[in-house]
Amino acid sequence: MIEPVWITGMGLITSIGNDRSSVVKSLREMRHGIENPPMLQVDESPVKVAGMVKDFEVDSSDPEDWIYPQEYHVSRATLRSFSPHVLYAWCALQQAIKDAHLSEQDMQDPDSGLYTSSGGSMRYIHKHFEKMDRRGVMACNPLAIVASIAGTLTFNLVAALGVRGSSTGLVSACASSGHALGTALDEIRLGRQKRMLVVGAEDCNFESIVPFCGMRALSLESDPNRASRPFDLKRNGFVGTGGSVCLVLESQSEAERRGVTPYARLLGWGQGSDGHNVAISHPEGRGLQDAMTKALRDSRMGPNEIDYVNAHAPSTPIGDASEIKALKAVFPSPQQVKISSTKALTGHGLSLSSIMEAAFCCLALKEGFLPGSAHVTEPDPELGHLDLLQTSPDIQAERILSNSSGFGGANVSVILEKV
Questions:
Q1: Tell me: the pLDDT tens digits for 366-416?
Q2: Is 287 exposed, middle or buried (0-12, 13-18, 19+ CB in 10 A)?
C-alpha cells in the first residue's frame, strides 16, 4: 500500500505577501500585487505592469548591495553566487523549514531531498556576457555560471543547506514546479526519500519580463486593476511576476513521528503533452485533458469528487480558451465545478506558478475558503456550465485540482486533499 504524503511546511515570497497570513488575507480580499514599477515606465518597454515582490531591493549587480528582510541573513560567501530569485528562494526555504519544525540534522539527512524549478536569471546571463564582450573572457566572474543558468537554484541551495538526499532542477517552463511536485511525490511514495523540499522561483525585473513582448504574450494594459483578468472576454495577455514558494512534503509516518500538523495531503498528479506547438496550447487542450485525467486516476477518484479547480488560466486569449475546453471535457455538464485563476492577483510566475498556486490551494483547504478570480467584468461565454468564482467564498473544499501548462505543450495537474 502506498503511504500518504503530507505537506507539512510552507514558505512564501510573492507579490501578494511574504508570509502565510498576508497571502491568506490577499486571497480572501482579492487584493492584487500588480503595480507600475519604474523599470517598465521607459520607452523601450511596451509593457507597463508587473506583480512586484515587496521589501526586496535587488537591482544592483553586486549582491552585497541588496536589501532584504533582516530575518533571512545570508553570509557574504553564500550570497555572492546568488541571483535575485535565488535570494527569494533562500527566504522561502527558511520560512518553510521553520514552519515544518525541521532541524539542521533533518535537512542533512540522506533521506531528505530538494527539487527546484526556475528559468535561471536572464539578467545575470545578460550582464555576464556583456562584461565578457567588453573586458574579455578572463574578466568573467568565476561564479557567473552557477549564479545565472537554470540550475542555479539547485547548485546554491543544496550547497548552502548541506542537502545530501535527492536533488535536481526541473525545467518545463510554466509547468516546471508542477513537475517538481509530482516527481517529489513519487520519490516519497516509492520509498526513496522520506522528505522532499520543493521550491520554485523567478526573478522579477526588466530582463525577465520584457522579452515576452516579442511573443505578443503580455498584457499591454497600463492599469494594474485591469491588466490580469483570466476568463474575461477582453483578456489580452499575462502579467509577469517573480518571487519564490517552498513546500515541504513528508511521508505520513515521518510527519506523525515528528508530531507536525499538515496543511493538506498531496493525493496524486498527472502530466500530458499537447504534441502541437512550441509556444501555443492545443486548441482543444488535449494535453491538459490528459494531465487532469491521469491525476484523477492516480488519486483513484472521479471528476465529481473534485470541489474546485485552480486553473492555469494566465489571461491570454488562446491559453484560457484551450483550458476552458479541457475543463468542460473532464468536468462535463451537469457538474458545475467551481474554478478560478489566482493569476489575476499575483500575475504569472512562469516556473514558479505551479507551486505558488498549489500553496494557495493548501491554504484554501486549511482555512476553509476558495480564492476567486478578480477583475472579471465580462465572463467568457464559452465557460458555459463551469462555475467561475468572482468572490472568495467561505466554502470548505475536500479536494482541489490545480493545473499548469508550459511551452511545448507541457501540462501538469496535481490534486490536494483536506487532512
A1: 999 999 999 999 999 999 999 999 999 999 999 999 999 999 999 999 999
A2: buried
Cα–Cα separations (whole angstroms), residue 103 to 85, 224, 351: 24, 41, 28
CA atoms within 13 A on the CB side of 416: 30
What DSSP string runs through 69-124? Answer: -TTS---HHHHTT--HHHHHHHHHHHHHHHHTT--HHHHTSTTEEEEEE----HHH
Q: What is the mean pLDDT of the chain?
A: 96
69, with CB counted inside 10 A (0-12, 13-18, 19+), is middle
Q: What is the largest CA-CA distance in the chain?
A: 66
d(CA 242, CA 349): 5
Q: What is the DSSP letter of 165?
A: S
Amino acid at 39: M
Grid coordinates in use for 3?
Answer: 503511504
Q: What does residue 291 show for φ and ψ, rounded to 5 degrees?
A: -60, -45
Average pLDDT over residues 303-314: 98
CB 376 within 8 A of CB 397: no
CA distances from 233 to 16, 46, 48, 267, 385 (A): 25, 22, 21, 34, 16
pTM: 0.97
For a pLDDT cut of 90, what percent of the chain falls above it?
A: 95
Domains belonging to the chain, first-starting first, are 5-258 (3.40.47.10), 268-417 (3.40.47.10)
Cell 533571512 belongs to which residue?
A: 72
Mean predicted confidence (pLDDT) in 53-71: 95
User: Which set of grid coordinates corresponds to residue 65?
Assistant: 548591495
Residues 346-367, buried b or exposed e (16+ Cβ, 10 A)? bbbbbbbbbbbbbbbbbbbbbe
Per-residue pLDDT tens over the stretch 277-291: 999 999 999 999 999
For residue 320, the SS3 value is helix
Backbone angles phi, psi at 85, to 5 degrees: -70, -20
- Could you give the CA distance from residue 400 to residue 377 in angstroms, rounded to a whole number? 25
* 118 exposure class (CB count in 10 Å sphere: 0-12, 13-18, 19+): buried
Residue 149 in grid coordinates: 543558468
Cβ atoms of residues 224 and 34 within 8 Å: yes
